[in-house]
Amino acid sequence: MSSIDIARRLLRIVLPRLDRDTVVADLDEELQRHVLPRRGPRGAARWYWAQTLSSLPAAVRLRYRAWRRDETMTMQDTEPMVAQIAQDVRYAWRGWRREPIFALTAIATYAVAVAVAAAIASVAYRVLVEPLPYRDGDALVGVREADRGNFSWPDFLALRQSTRSLSDVVGYNGVSRALVNGGMADRLSGVEVTEGFFEALGIQPMAGRLFRPEDFVTEAPLAVMLTHATWQRRFGGDPALAGRTILLDGQPATVAGILPDTFEFPLRGGAEFWQPLRPSRVQRERGYVHWLDVIARRRPGVSDAQIAADLDLLARLRAAEDPKYHASARLSVIPLREEIVGYVRPSLLALLTAVALLFLAACANVAGLVFARTIARRRELSVRAAIGAAPARLARQLVIESLMLTTAGTAIGSIVAGALVRSAMSAVPARQKASLLYADRLDVAPEVVAGVFVLSILAGLTLGIFTSIRTNRADFRCSLTLRGATAGGARWRSVLVAGEVALALMLIAGTGLLARSVYRLLHVSPGFDPRGLLTFRIMLPAPRDAQAALAQAVRDRNEMAAQALRDRIATVTEANRDRVLAAFRALPGVTEVSTIDQLPLTGRSPSMTLQIIARPVAGEEPTVLVRTIGADYFDAMGIPIEAGRPFNDRDRRGTPSVAIVNRMLADRVFGGSAIGQRIAFPSAPGGFDVVGIVGDEQFTDIDSGRDPVVYLPYLQSASGNFSVVLRGSDPAAIGADVRRALARIDPQVPAFAMRTMEEILEESRAVFLRRTVLTLLTVFAISVLVLTTVGIYGTLAYAVTQRRREIGLRMALGAHRAAIARVMLARGMSPVAVGCIAGLLGSLGLAGSLRALLFGVEATDPAILTAAVALLGSVSLLACAVPVWRALRVDPATALRNDGS
Amino acid sequence: MAGRVTFLGEFEQVVMLAVIRLGEAAYGTTIRREIETRAGRRVSIGAAYATLDRLVEKGLLRERDEAGGAERSGRMKRFFDVTPAGIDALEEARTLQIRMWAGIQLRRARRTP
Q1: Contacts of A449 (CB under 8 A, 6+ apart)
Q2: Do A54 and B32 touch (CB under 8 A)?
Q3: If you placed Cys at A16, which of A63, A166, A197, A571 could pair as Cys (CB 3.0 to 4.6 Å)?
């Protein structure tokens, strides 16, 4: 639209309908004929705007005159309708100015409800509905090998080569490397991806290039892609970084490109760099180590059934090729969106339900306020009716007032919603945020705001029409002369109060159930004692020269030399580790120190197929988690040794290989008595003697089942990369001492990811998902409880005022105060009782929306439902107390004398 | 006629004179341009119409709409011409002026030294 078009539109809007065409046509004609040829397009535009702006006052005068002419001619035209509405708006505005408390309360209540609803609905919309940030993201699927999840390299190759229903089969795997940048060493987590990964997702680099086939060759120099955030944070957004070399793990790596700001991959949320996946020889050859996550794209037009058939066939082929490890292999796909956001869906759906309840409660409350005010305005409305205002006109007045209320509330609420979303996101723990889709981009969705506006207009219309029906039914002449009782209005307010009570009860019950779940989660024993534990990760560097020599020996296939070098590296690493742990042990307040390769409750870890030599119980080879631990691990964690012995310093290289299994594995595979059994892994066919059985500890997350675990001693498979668990009197305070002790030994080795075990529990996904919902539900429940209390109080106080005369009369006739109190209480509490029943039914109906989040408690838990009813009942009684007390203080004489005036 | 107490404002006179000058060709564009070129006064199209509208309402002008040509994409052209009452009002205004001006010689007051 050109600037002349805008001016023309402006002028047309202001001009009266009958003059629009002629006036604008005159102007256009002059423009074409005289102005354009003389002044050129820019001068002409200036001229047009000058004409338009200087014409506006006159156009307003013209319009006013046209309207006045129309009004004298006929009352049915559309123009005066607009003017009348304008008048209604002004009238309502004056009313609000006279009673600002009413207007502010009603608008604020509605605005808060809109803000919360829009905020939560926006998050839900973006996360659950909006397309994934990849090319044709809805066609992407995660491929899983049943009961393990991830793939081995040969399985991945087989899938990529033979599938006919999927294209773009790519894999990824988490890695981590130390970056030395500006003299500071820092550990970065990254992802290694197979060829074509970014192309499959449709991601283009912001600078530089994507990986090329030659980057995937094992001996080629390392190339990496950096995320936009890392490029900004660690390299100051250096525009010439792409193509340059950085140091990763002390080795040069070329920065191939920078990923765009919009790129996110929540399945590996914390990743800072991406590198080509170059499988090691071990990975290439061994089909039983499952470590690769796979995604693919469904081919266009392929049905779910076709994919299932295709994958079934593939699995059977694999089983025939390799019966030893793939006898039971099954393949399945789930939509990538489900894989990314599936875990937050129950939380979001529960929140949406809760916010709907809150919204309804706020609507009921605003409706109550508007009813009360309409009743108070009966006299005014009656006067207007008496001097000739048509009922329709009065009705329109009420509808417009309601619409103004909800529109103002929506406008304010939509603005606040943005701030709400942003502040809520800033409260999310960083670990959880990393795996949340769109976490850094969440804001109010325009679609949601539009929806809320439509909803608000409907709400405003309903409210207005409803009030005007109620008002029209009342006999205006009657209310002019009498202060007639308004039983109808009071009854409707009671219905609203009952509704609010029902909503409040549902919210309180939901809050109670979730609070109980979170409590249970935090108090369920994870199998170890989390109190007093500090954890952090250390990576001890291997001697560089030995490592290079080892690589050379492996290339030369010189197995003797390689083994000697491995031993040398292991000896140095063990010595370094001993030095570090001794230093920690010497710190004041530290009682136990040990190590494990991956801490419990810190996410998924690769699993292995276990082989049992001389198996007593027949069945499949089980898949187990394998953990390498220091000698005192069970002591440090407080895990009971149920049979046999723990590891000790004699379990080292050169002594018989030993293992400890957990109770679950012992029961499932060995029928309880595992001591003395021999187990093996395909990668370590030599086998291990089982020397002990320990209690189960929770590994994946606290709300998931326990896994069979095999523990191996650190000294028989040393590595420089491990987590330290350190038990002490005040774990949070020991952190600084740990860092100092470490810096004294080697300033290049950082202690990272330092957290107390209690923090790990608190920040675990299981707790986070429920606690977020719980916090919001608590706020909602309290708000609705307050609204309800005010509603109960208001209704009863109004009834008392209305019935002063009746109360006075009863008292004069000798009624006892107790009887009067009983009548008034019954009146106040009956909507509460009705509401409670409705609320209980509602709670049962909504139980499903919460079920996925409950832990250790049933959705219909009678204790919690009873407690919710008791809480609501007692608060309602309190709300009734003041009006009842006032009723009892009615002085019969005054009440009777003052009334009927 | 009792109704002939209509007084013309100064701008109203200018507009009516422009309409008379233009004769058959008196419509928005031409009227506005006539005033600008002859009276040397800037006039917005809106102001012109506001006055024309008022004069029509007073019965001093008549309007008739005709379909416009291609340069207006067919939009209406509103032509104006003066009614007898308009002529009377203009006469009145002129006589009034002449009477009031008769015998007046303007001298600017000298400044006192």
Answers
A1: A118, A414, A417
A2: no
A3: A63
